[in-house]
Amino acid sequence: MKMKELKRCSLFWAASMISISAFAGNLSNFQEPNTSQLVKSIEQHRLNVVQFGDSHTAADYMSNALRTTLQNNLGNGGMGWGMPMYFSGQRLTRFGYDNTNWQPISIRTQANENYTLGGLIARPESDGATLTIKAKQQEQLQEITVSIRQGAEDSDFQGVDSRGEHFHLSAPVKDNTWQLQTFKARLPFTITAPHNPQSALGGWWAKNATGSGAVVSALGINGAQLQSWSNWNPVWKKQLGKLKFDLIILAYGTNEAYSYHDLEQEKQILLSRIHDIREVSPSSAILIVSAPESLKDKSGECGVRPSQLTAFQAMQREVASQAHTLFWDWQEAMGGNCSMKGWMARGDAARDGVHFSASGYTKLGDRLANDILALASAGSKVSMTKQVDSHSSTKPVLVASSQNQTAGFASICGIDEGDNSCKVIH
Prior knowledge:
alpha+beta; disordered C terminus; seven-stranded mixed β-sheet
């Protein structure tokens, strides 16, 4: 095979890697630079995942199926993120709450508060206000990182866990900025707070004290859009970096599709968020989960899609390609275009044509988890190169490298004179 043909084939292989890059199922890789690190985390059974999204995420059915499947394969790494306290309309599978005299504040109804990651705040309203964080199933000793904010004159919160172990919570620097403090506790634990003017809690990040297994955190707000992040205090970037995620999932688009948006502006918002994440968490892989099929009118064979849904989905895929991220096609995971009514008929989607039932979310989360796990299977394949006799002009050559084997595919390139085609194989 001539050197110029090898070079030409390599170029075609690179182009193919971008345009045809499915690992398994509906997960595509557009040259995510941290793929090998993600694969390593999966193989070592030490995987930390966070998903940001809208009501699909806030229900924690799909993300719990993702959590369950990953933990069944990699081990239970802990509870993940917990809301700072209970919020109406929000649900978490692993966390329960009791409180006396605490105020829930949500970005959904109060946009101008000082929020950190997640857009939820718990604030004590009186001296002696109590907040109990419970586990809905038996859990190991948890290493918990709390997001906390306090003013200069604010007193510490006092805590006690189910073992009777006492601890206190306070911001490392009391300057009314969001900070992280870590402690160990066995749930349930109860926090007692004085009525401090600036003290607030922004959420609990819980994982097993052993550090092994998979952890999946779900931070969703009903009605959220990706632009909602602009209402968070910029300190969210520092906190995201300190929490050291292996995989960060962005699952937005349903709400954007139901109201008019400038698609170019939405594209720039998504690119900007990816840039921010790369800057503060450079070792994290990023996965864009596209908007699922949804219906604004259920008449006809397929129903009527929101006017911007198709274009928004295409934009999400375009950004994944441009920004070199992973991409999971939710609509294809449903069966493609015109699939929502079938999910509704089976009882896997709600009658509103937008949301899914618990069974539907569970199926989708399990599919996403298995597609993510397939990364490790693809990455563990032995890299090899098939040598071809230079006098043979009819046999293909397998062009492989550690990079494309990590991606889970190689390229077959024709070597006949004038044949520059390369085909991706899995």
